[in-house]
Amino acid sequence: MKTYRIALIPGDGIGKDVIDAAWQVSEKVAGKTGFGLEPTSFPWSCAYYKETGAMMPADGIATLRGFDAILLGAVGWPAEVPDSVSLHGLLLPIRKAFEQYANIRPHRLLPGVEGPLKAKDFDILCIRENTEGEYSGAGGRVHQGTANEVAVETSIFTRTGVERILRFGFEQARMRRGKLASVTKSNAQKYSMVFWDEITALVAADYPEVTVTSYHIDAMAARMVMAPESLDVVVASNLFGDILTDLGAAIQGGLGFAASANLNPDRTAPSMFEPVHGSAPDIAHLGIANPIAAIWSAAMMLEHLGEKTAADAIMDAIAAATAAGIGTAPGQDKTDTITKAVLNALS
Ligand code: IPM
Ligand code: MN
């Protein structure tokens, strides 16, 4: 029997609740489909930071490298550890170290979920560059605390980085409805974003079957609200993709439905799967976090591992639960109730 080694990092806040739910569903589907899952849980989190002074041990990345995939709940507990410390100590280094350059976020309405828009029939795949751009971490501050203080944070766009994310996007578009939207702000940012537009045109030449349109980020934000059904694959830089995918989460009914995969498409290191919602301190410990985003992320993990049948079974079970009205609105059902409904639909 094929067995996959999975690193579980529940992290902070509701991360623990939703990873527990996603893991129950993953184990059940593995049993039914006939493969094994071997979990190793890591306590890396803000609580771990308070104890040890680091979000993960110095050999954390080396440890994770041996796994087939990583399932992560949420990182951040700003009341105790500044986000700029916790995120740069755990989530962001994993994305970069393992070259998880494609952050994939599907936005569509699950059956039974209303969403805030009149438009219901949209199916968008946002693909966010995940290792460079505005998140490069290049910069500094001088004259700190004085009136002359200066802060610089430089976006770094490399030809390798931009080309590989666009190529990945075109591959996805080819397998979907053949439309790709490339998002920049090249009317204002005349170096990096013009560079991105040029590379879009270059890569597009290799994919004549894909219709490509370039949009500015502001216009794309409006389009996702006014005409989401006109979009198929949307490719954007790290920060633009971050912002657009919270908008995507909103139009699909809320962050409780927003799943994501941080993919290393070349498979030179493990990929990481996580719900988009974060640790949600306001509802942590209440048992009302919607686990659907995490369960959906687990389905993406199994698909990446080659277990498409199992992934499809999870998506069908989620759809059965929401079609029956379970977990369709924020705070409406307990985490446990939603998890049980998905587990039941699997049998
Ligand atoms: C996300 C999150 C992270 C990001 C934060 C927590 C650093 O918002 O995954 O979308 O900006 O990438
Ligand atoms: Mn975000």
TL;DR of this structure?
The chain has 347 residues and is an alpha/beta fold.
Unreliable segments (pLDDT under 50, ≥5 consecutive)? none
| Radius of gyration of CA atoms, rounded to a whole number | 20 Å
How would you classify the helix and strand content by structural class? alpha/beta
Q: Would you list the SSEs in sequence order as H and E?
A: EHEHHEHHEEEEHEHEHEHEEHHH
**CATH homologous superfamily annotation of the largest domain:** Isopropylmalate Dehydrogenase
Can you summarize the main beta sheet? 10 strands, mixed
Shape assignment: globular
Q: With helices defined by DSSP (H or I, 4 residues minimum), what is the helix count?
A: 12
Which ligands, by name, code or SMILES, are bound?
3-isopropylmalic acid, manganese (II) ion
Assign the CATH architecture of the largest domain.
3-Layer(aba) Sandwich
Mean pLDDT: 98
Ends: how far apart?
21 Å
Number of domains: 2
The helicity comes to: 40-55%
Q: What proportion of the residues form beta strands (DSSP E)?
A: 15-25%
User: According to CATH, what is the class of the largest domain?
Assistant: Alpha Beta
Number of strands: 12
Report strand order across the widest sheet: 2-1-3-12-11-4-5-10-8-9
CATH fold label of the largest domain:
Isopropylmalate Dehydrogenase
Write the layout of secondary structure elements.
Blueprint: E1 3-11, H1 15-33, E2 36-41, H2 46-52, H3 60-65, E3 69-74, H4 83-89, H5 91-97, E4 102-108, E5 123-129, E6 133-142, E7 150-156, H6 159-175, E8 179-184, H7 192-204, E9 211-216, H8 217-226, E10 233-236, H9 238-251, E11 259-263, E12 271-275, H10 292-304, H11 308-323, H12 335-346
Parallel strand pairs: 1-2, 1-3, 3-12, 5-10, 8-9, 8-10
Antiparallel strand pairs: 4-5, 4-11, 6-7, 11-12
Bound molecules: 3-isopropylmalic acid and manganese (II) ion.
